[in-house]
Amino acid sequence: MSAKRAQVSPWAPFEDRRRARDEKKHAVLRMAAQLFLDVGYHRATLNEVATRLNITKPALYNYFRSKEEILDECYRLGQQMAEDAIAEIDEAGGDGLTRLRKLIRAYALLMTIDFGMCLVRLDDRELSEDAHRRVRAEKRQDDRAFRRYIEAGVADGSIVDCDPKLAAFAIAGSLNWIGHWYREGGTYSAEEIANQFADLLTTGLQARRTRGRNHKAAPRAGVALRSKRR
Amino acid sequence: MSAKRAQVSPWAPFEDRRRARDEKKHAVLRMAAQLFLDVGYHRATLNEVATRLNITKPALYNYFRSKEEILDECYRLGQQMAEDAIAEIDEAGGDGLTRLRKLIRAYALLMTIDFGMCLVRLDDRELSEDAHRRVRAEKRQDDRAFRRYIEAGVADGSIVDCDPKLAAFAIAGSLNWIGHWYREGGTYSAEEIANQFADLLTTGLQARRTRGRNHKAAPRAGVALRSKRR
Amino acid sequence: MSAKRAQVSPWAPFEDRRRARDEKKHAVLRMAAQLFLDVGYHRATLNEVATRLNITKPALYNYFRSKEEILDECYRLGQQMAEDAIAEIDEAGGDGLTRLRKLIRAYALLMTIDFGMCLVRLDDRELSEDAHRRVRAEKRQDDRAFRRYIEAGVADGSIVDCDPKLAAFAIAGSLNWIGHWYREGGTYSAEEIANQFADLLTTGLQARRTRGRNHKAAPRAGVALRSKRR
Amino acid sequence: MSAKRAQVSPWAPFEDRRRARDEKKHAVLRMAAQLFLDVGYHRATLNEVATRLNITKPALYNYFRSKEEILDECYRLGQQMAEDAIAEIDEAGGDGLTRLRKLIRAYALLMTIDFGMCLVRLDDRELSEDAHRRVRAEKRQDDRAFRRYIEAGVADGSIVDCDPKLAAFAIAGSLNWIGHWYREGGTYSAEEIANQFADLLTTGLQARRTRGRNHKAAPRAGVALRSKRR
DNA sequence: GATGAATGAGCCTTCATTCAT
DNA sequence: TATGAATGAAGGCTCATTCAT
């Protein structure tokens, strides 16, 4: 493999090395994230992280300056995904309800992967002052997204009039909770959860467009919730 | 004061002491719970707990055998409240939706007090094997209550057909999240939150009893959510 | 009981009290000694001593100023017995061998009671400088007694010529060891042990007085050791 | 130096490191044993052990998992020596008296070195349940060896008929006591003590083979004891 | 005289982090 | 780059001892 790459270009080895390094760094990150989730940040020792990676503790310091930095990166990765999802949704446009449903789906999916779980299961107070502020700000951004979409929905009529702040809290809470109970290979797949929650959490918010459609729209609440059962 | 008590009964002093002791124990518990919530269990030192109580660290050991036991008691107190609420609701009876709404209200209120927050913000893996199992079992009981009421509601027609497990997760998640964002003296009072969430989380689940009443029942979703705004 | 004594004399109550106090003090002492022997001085807490006596820890301080003083008294009592035994033996006189045998018996018996065991099983370094010195001196006195008798025996011909210091160490060691393995109600009674050791530890030391008596005296070694078997 | 080693073998560095580590571990062990003997297990702090080794307390944890494990190893080393001695004696064979004398010598020598002293001067109740059981069992094995040899001697006629259990206790006690009074550079060398005790403790046990030899054999008791003096 | 409560001192242990090799 | 070894900081816990009641 390296031989093959070496032929491609003279700087490949550097590239090679950098990539190898990045891969290792990422491996550390993922292992650490898993351990953090498994036993909690404090009880997760760097020794254990290193051991699981078949390296030694000081070796970790080649990739990270401190344990806290590892935690910080976990947050970064998780929040990058959330940010990307929001950016994409914003870009795509659509009415409030549509965007809200998209965000719910994306966020639900995020809650089923390690770095997403880190966002809601690890304690950001372990971070340094600066990192902590950043994480808090980003979390607020996420919450704002929920609120923005709801407000937009209320404005454009796709969502019933409601308290956007409380509604956002309710929705975010439901989603965050996924990070606590989801187990890979469990009853529900990530996709199922995402879809179900998109329905579940918006049924009560959907505005009924016309009186005429009301007869059909109203039962949708039930329809959505029953979907799994059918 | 002592003369007055002496007349009451000869064993009053004992009773007195016992009460004083219990009060102190409770004071320790509350202070510890607050600190646990403030900075996290691990970063909360017994020294700090003691200092805040104007006593010294070893004095805490008059009331608790270990830091873990303090945590355990926090869980116990919180869960006792949940258990009591469920017992009371079960006893009162009513259709599924009614009981579910009661539970939501009770649980939301629980999430606004220290020992309730402990249930969802502290890490039960800090507990000993036995205590951990107990806490887990009790948490499962709480979740079961949500599910039971939903199932009952589906059966008695007060709740639309849905996946009770997922619905319970969604509701529990929303409520647990309150424990993370609620601040005393903040925008919403505990009561407001409880009421709003009772509506918010059940609107989508309410079955429409008759076609005739449908016209009134259906909009309730909106009504509930709008209530705050009006 | 107190009523009966009260009739005896007007100062009886005082006497009574003093005696009651002394009895209690002694009870504390014995309980403490037992616990010290059971679990070791350090692991024996005053709390446990008090609990076993159905009193509370601070109550112990009515009788003793410190834990160390309790230990000190244990030593005192044990050593008083040794001292008394030696004094009595010295007073009674007799040849070296006779006195040595008496001391062996007395010391063996001492090793089967609590305060005697304390002498050899507890660590005198726990004591304060002064008490430690005293105990050391007294232990030396005991050892000197063994040596004195052996030397006297060698001088008066009742004991074969030998190194008194080493012989005393050997004998004292055998006896001290009793304090480690003796169990009340075990295979051997205290009396049996005392007698057997008196023979066992002196057989090799007996001089054969005359050639004529040698035929009887020499086998005594065997006789003594076989005594139990017969 | 490294060049020289490099020539020896490629794995020398590893071997080197392992050896250095083992040496350090052993150094810790010996220093700890000495301190344990000096001031007692409880009063010996790991800080003091470390300080005497010119390292810091946590460094000890590179070699041992706990203070108790250090104690455990001390016992192990001492008992290994006893076990080896017994095995060697058993292998060499000989009549009961011969083996008994060998064991006495070996055990006496053991009592003059640190790890041997640990066996009799430290409190095995400080050990964990398991280690404690092991140590107790091993101590019993040692005592059994004494008893076995005496019984064998009685059976083969090299030792007079006696109570093997008591005789073993007496001998073991004398020997254990050495561990309490022996001081390096004192009056007696370890070798002297071993030889003297071998005689001292068996003289009384020797059977006189024939009446004719009795004249020479009998005084042997005296001879042995006098040996030092001559 | 006795007790509940509190304290001060001290020790074992853990762990992130650094350093020499 | 990787490792074994070492460290500093810190926290939980125990226990003899004191004090107010």
Question: What can you tell me about this protein's structure?
Answer:
Chain A has two domains: 64 residues, Homeodomain-like (Arc Repressor Mutant, subunit A, Orthogonal Bundle), CATH 1.10.10.60; 153 residues, Tetracycline Repressor, domain 2 (Orthogonal Bundle), CATH 1.10.357.10. Chain A has 230 residues and is mainly α. Chain A is 73% helix and 0% strand. Chain A is elongated. Chain A starts with a helix and ends with a helix. Chains in contact: A-B, C-D. At the A-B interface, helix 9, helix 10 and helix 11 of A face helix 9, helix 10 and helix 12 of B. Chain B binds a DNA duplex (21 and 21 nucleotides) through helix 2 and helix 4.
List the helices and strands and how they pair.
Four copies of one chain form a homotetramer.
Chain A: H1 2-8, H2 12-39, H3 46-52, H4 57-60, H5 67-92, H6 96-110, H7 114-121, H8 129-156, H9 164-181, H10 190-200, H11 211-226
Helix pairs in contact in A: 2-3, 2-5, 2-7, 5-6, 5-7, 5-8, 6-8, 6-9, 6-10, 7-9, 8-9
Chain B binds a DNA duplex (21 and 21 nucleotides) through helix 2 and helix 4.
Strand count, sense and closure of the main sheet of chain A? none
Helical content band of chain A: over 70%
- Write out the CATH superfamily name of the largest domain in chain A: Tetracycline Repressor, domain 2
Which structural class matches the secondary elements of chain A?
mainly alpha
Series of secondary-structure elements of chain A, N-terminal to C-terminal: HHHHHHHHHHH
Low-pLDDT stretches of chain A are 1-6, 209-230
Shape verdict of chain A = elongated
Instruction: Give me the CATH architecture of the largest domain in chain A, please.
Output: Orthogonal Bundle
Number of strands of chain A: 0
State the end-to-end distance of chain A: 51 Å
